[in-house]
Design brief:
Keywords: Pyridoxal phosphate. The protein is of the alpha/beta class and 379 residues long. Helices cover 38% and strands 14% of the residues. The chain contains 13 helices and 15 strands. Bound molecules: pyridoxal-5'-phosphate (PLP).
Length: 379
């Protein structure tokens, strides 16, 4: 094969340029405008539950603005899922607060409700105050055990900030990920379910929270004719050009999700009879992952290779793969953060690999990838 198969390439519907052209034609080349409003409306309709949505410059910015609205300040603690991309936890540090890392459970690879409760209790006992927020993640688009997590959060009256950056379209019991917590985060970076070339959104509970989010996202300007500032603000709004790309992408979002699920299904059939390779799938019928990336666990004792040996072998065959996220509690930058871990995320990290899944991966590509993996095993 001479083409290279990437993990998750952006895929355009063709309509993006029409929305961008319209923005140019009407001179809305600014960080607000008709595309931003329409994109927000479409997202609001997509996620449902009467939520409001604010389009922002990045998913990371969305997490930051949610933490600000939850009152997270220097000296506070925020509970974070350890098994994730660094952007889930970094904004906690922007606020001068401390992330407290909680390990994953095996069913979903996401925040363990058992360890979460242990962490909440222990932090209260040790510091005399409650963590300010809980940030579970729906990693690789697999819904976390969000019902149990929200129940624990409610018991201790701690708000939940759901990181659904990888989980646009994923559902738990028929309800979209990102709508369970007080706030939900989406990302439209280049390799996510849809792209705006770079961007994100905050799902908020009501119109008031939407106004507040927009206030902080546009330099916290007070309602005076001159520029009056009483709070520290940010420049986090999405541009009308990027939102134009988003509107084009919304026309193919459901197709993208269906495609990711279809590729996962092809892998599932193909790996069913392969010992030593375990494809991650929905643990039961309550979970409906978007399968943003398909992921496998490798049992080296059976296959004879580990994830890194497989990654290098597939790379030589034109197939891009990637190790699973390295847990935050193992990152040098977070060496001093408190942690409640039982080794689950570390074990997954040491055994796993992400394999291509995006809209540009064809059925033949999937078959080729499986064939190449099986060939490695015969050696
Ligand atoms: C991509 C991602 C983010 C951040 O989104 P950006 O739009 O890249 O800032 C946050 N959390 C997770 C889990 C992500 O994968």
């Amino acid at each position: 094969m001479d083409k290279r198969i990437y993990l998750c390439l952006a895929h355009m519907s063709g309509k993006e340029q029409d929305f961008i052209k319209e923005a140019f034609d009407t001179n809305w080349v600014v960080p607000l405008g008709p595309n931003v409003n329409a994109f927000e409306e479409e997202l609001k309709h997509f996620v449902g539950r009467n939520k409001e949505v604010v389009a922002l410059s990045a998913g990371t910015a969305a997490i930051h603005l949610a933490l600000i609205q939850l009152g997270v300040q220097a000296g506070d603690e925020v509970i974070c899922q350890s098994f994730t991309f660094c952007a889930s936890a970094n904004p906690v540090n922007y606020q001068g607060a401390t992330p407290v890392f909680v390990d994953s459970e095996e069913d979903t690879w996401n925040m363990s409700p058992t360890l979460l409760e242990e962490a909440v209790r222990d932090r209260i006992a040790k510091t005399g105050k409650k963590p300010k927020a809980i940030i579970p993640v729906h990693l690789y688009g697999m819904p976390a055990k969000i019902d149990e997590i929200c129940a624990i959060a409610a018991r201790y009256d701690i708000p939940v900030l759901e990181d659904a950056a990888e989980a646009l379209g994923s559902e738990f019991m028929g309800r979209k990920c990102g709508t369970f917590g007080q706030f939900g985060v989406l990302s439209f970076n280049g390799n996510k379910m849809i792209t705006t070339s770079g961007g994100g959104a905050l799902i908020v509970p009501n119109e008031e929270a939407k106004k507040k989010t927009m206030f902080y996202a546009t330099q916290a300007r007070e309602p005076f004719p001159y520029y009056q500032h009483e709070k520290i603000g940010y420049n986090y709004r999405m541009s009308n050009i990027c939102a134009g790309i988003g509107r084009g992408q919304m026309t193919v979002l459901n197709e993208h999700i269906a495609h990711h699920r279809r590729i996962h299904e092809l892998y599932k059939l193909a790996f069913a009879d392969v010992d030593g390779i375990e494809l991650k799938s929905n643990p039961d019928e309550r979970f409906n992952a978007n399968y943003w990336l398909s992921t496998i666990l490798i049992d080296k004792n059976v296959t004879g290779f580990d994830y890194e040996e497989l990654r290098i072998a597939l790379d030589a065959k034109g197939i891009e793969t990637r190790p699973l996220w390295k847990p935050m509690h193992l990152q040098p930058i977070f060496a001093n953060s408190p942690r409640y871990v039982d080794g689950t995320a570390e074990k997954l990290f040491n055994r796993g690999l992400c394999i291509p899944a995006g809209p540009c991966v064809t059925d033949e590509d999937a078959a080729y990838i499986v064939r190449e993996i099986k060939k490695c095993m015969k050696k």
